[in-house]
Amino acid sequence: MKTSHLPRVALLSLGLFSTTLHAADSAPVNLIENGGFEDATSFAWRIVNTPHATATINEGAAHTGKRGLTIKDESAETIARAMSPNLPTAPGRVYALKFWARTHSYGTCGGISVRFLDATGATAGDATASHAQATDTQGGWQEFTLTATAPEGAATVAAWIHTYSRQEGVVDFDDIELREVTEKTDAKKAR
Q1: I need a surface site. Which of 12, 32, 109, 124 has the fewest CB within 10 A?
Q2: How confident is the model at residue 191 (pLDDT cuts 50, 70, 90)?
Q3: Which residues pair with 6 in a beta bridge?
Q4: Helix, strand, or coil here: 89?
Q5: Structural domains of the chain ordered from first start
């Protein structure tokens, strides 16, 4: 009777080993829900507008698919931003961020920050340390990437898309991906 159970155990072990190899070979999962802004019915991004700076989902801002995000800033004193949902994290976790952006005029810039917050919602670490800036793409789409490590005290991570104070213009964003990676070399796989 013992020998009849051995083949089943061996097959079960082989199946787990095979699954583990497949998972290690694949790219990490995108943590940003609706990073292409396609699903208007389950939109989890939080948009913050001011009287002279707006963030809108529209068809004219699509890099791929049908929609993207446009930030239009008409004031050198205010900013608009869109923030992904806060996702749980822990200190030392490494993230790879990738996005596409285009500016509509010379001198215009916008960016995305990987923001880490502590358990109270306050910024953990240096808020400007994990940032990619899109500047003067001359109306063409350009891909941007960055890698960020969760600092001490980090409890959540999110992507914040924004313009800058003292900056006016229009910037489109699309195809945003945030992936947890285990090593710096995995950041290349996520791209």
Answers
A1: 12
A2: low
A3: none
A4: coil
A5: 28-190 (2.60.120.260)
